[in-house]
Amino acid sequence: MPPDVCVPSERSELTTLTDWAIDEEPPEGGDVRIPDASGWSIVGQNPIGSDHGWVQRSTDDTSPCSPPSVYDFVYPKGMVEGTAPATVYYRLSSDEVYAVFWWKPSAPFDMGPNGNKLAFLFNGGGDGGGQQFLILLPDGRLHVLPEYPHDFRWRPPNVNSTRVALGVWHRVDWYSNRVTGDLQWSLDGVVQGRYNDVKNTQPFDMFQISPTWGGNTGAKKRQTDHFWFDHVYLSAR
Q1: Nearest to 52 by CA among 85, 28, 87
Q2: Is 176 exposed, middle or buried (0-12, 13-18, 19+ CB in 10 A)?
Q3: Is the pTM of this model over 0.85?
Q4: Which domains does the chain have, with CATH numbers?
Q5: Spatial CA neighbour of 176 closest among 77, 84, 62, 99
Q6: Distance between CA atoms of residues 235 and 237, nearest Å
Q7: pLDDT per residue over 67-89, tens digit each?
Q8: How far is the first Cα of the chain from the last one, in angstroms, to the nearest whole number?
Q9: Which are the contacts of 61, defined by CB distance < 8 A and separation ≥ 6?
Q10: What is the DSSP string of 1-62?
C-alpha cells in the first residue's frame, strides 16, 4: 500500500463526513455515543467474556494507518452465528457514500458455512429501504449483497477476484451511488467489483461496522477468532 495510506485520494468531489482513528474506548451499555469519536455510536456491546462476543480497544503497532489503537471484535469459541460482537455506526443522509477502512482478520479464521460480514450501508431507516453489506465469504473473497426491494441478488467480484490474506492488514474501499446504481469495492487498492445497477429510491442513512458472523443455520464457532479494525473514513454527498 502507498505511504499516504491514511489519505484517500479517490472520490475527491465528495465531502468528508468523518475521519476517525478508532482510538477511543468502546463504552458498554445500550445504544450510546462513543465519547470524542466524531459522531460515532455503538450498540450491542457485551461485557468482555460474553458468549455472544464483544469489542475491545487493543494495541497493534503493525496497523498501517493510525497505530497503535484498534478495535478488536472478538468471536469466542462456541458463539452462535447470526450476530456481531457489537455494532459501531455513523448516521448520514446522502445519495452517494464512499467508505474506507482498515481491517485484519485473524489467522486461521473459522468462516463457518456463511462467511463473515464486515460493514453495512442502510437506506431509508425503518421505511423499507433495505440495506447492502460487504462480506467475506467462505471462498475467501469480498462480495456485496444488496437486500433491497426488488433487488436481492449477490454481486460477486467481477473485475478482480483476490483471495483475502488472513492475519494481515487490508485497506477496503467501498463506493455506492443509490441514484445512478454505481457500486464499486476494492481491496488494497485493487478493484474487486464494479456494477451500475444497484439503485434505491431512498437515501443512505447509516454506515455500520457490524462484523456479523454467519447467517441463521445455528453454526457455532470452532475456535476464538478476531476481526480488527483501524481508522475509518467516510465521505458523501
Answers
A1: 85
A2: buried
A3: yes
A4: 16-236 (2.60.120.200)
A5: 99
A6: 7
A7: 999 999 999 999 999 999 999 99
A8: 27
A9: 67, 68
A10: --TTTTS--S-TTSEEEEEE---SPPPPSSSEEPTTSTT-EEES---TT-TT-EEEEEE-TT
